[in-house]
Amino acid sequence: MTTETGLVTGDDGLARPGWAAADDLMREYYDTEWGMPVTDERGLFERLSLEAFQSGLSWATILRKRPAFRAAFKDFVPEEVAAFTEADTARLLADARIVRNRAKIAATIGNARATVGLREKGGLSEFIWSFKPAATPEPRTMAEVPTQSAESAAMARALKREGFAFVGPTTAYALMSAVGMVDLHLVGSHRRGSSGIWS
C-alpha cells in the first residue's frame, strides 16, 4: 500500500519510500545500510567513489555492480588505488562489469591519491565529518527531500581544493545522506532516526 507521502508498506508491515521497495537489493540496502554511520577511511572512499560513478545513472545500477567495482578497485583501499597506472586504467576501461567512464575512473584514482594526502591533515573521515550540519531535514514526502545543502556545497569546494574530482554539491549531499551525516529517511519510515546520530 502506497501512502500520499510516497511511503510503501511492505508485506512485512514496514514503511519504506517507493525506491526502497522496488526490489530485494534496494530494500536490503535501505534496511541495513543507507543512512548508517560510516567513519572509516576505506568505507568513506568507497562511498565517495560509488556516488561519483552514480552521477547520471540510477543508484540501483551502481548497487548491482558494487561487487564488480570492489574487485576492480582493490576493495577501495586508498593506497592500492592511488598506485594505479595507465595499465590499470586500460584494464578498467575494458571491464564490462563496471561503469566504463574514463573521467570517472581517472577521478577515482586521483581521489585515492588525494585521500592518502589528507592523512597528513587528520584524514578523510575527520575532513568529511567536519561538514556535519547542526540539524537534519525532516522530509515527509519525496518532494521535500533536498538534493544539496550549504554544507554539501562547502564540502564539495573543500574536497576540490584538496585535489578531489567529481564531487559537486549534489554528489557530496548524496554521500552525506548515505553515511548518516543527515537523515533523509521520510518521517514515518521504519528507518527514520535509526542511525543513532539523529533522534
UniProtKB/TrEMBL annotation:
One of its GO terms (molecular function) is DNA-3-methyladenine glycosylase activity. The keyword Zinc applies. The keyword Transit peptide does not apply. Keywords: Metal-binding, Zinc. Zn(2+) binds at H185. GO terms for biological process: base-excision repair. InterPro entries: Adenine_glyco, DNA-3mA_glycosylase, DNA_glycosylase. It comes from the Bacteria. Pfam families: Adenine_glyco. PANTHER family: DNA-3-METHYLADENINE GLYCOSYLASE 1, DNA-3-METHYLADENINE GLYCOSYLASE I. This is DNA-3-methyladenine glycosylase I. The lineage of its organism: Bacteria, Bacillati, Actinomycetota, Actinomycetes, Micrococcales.
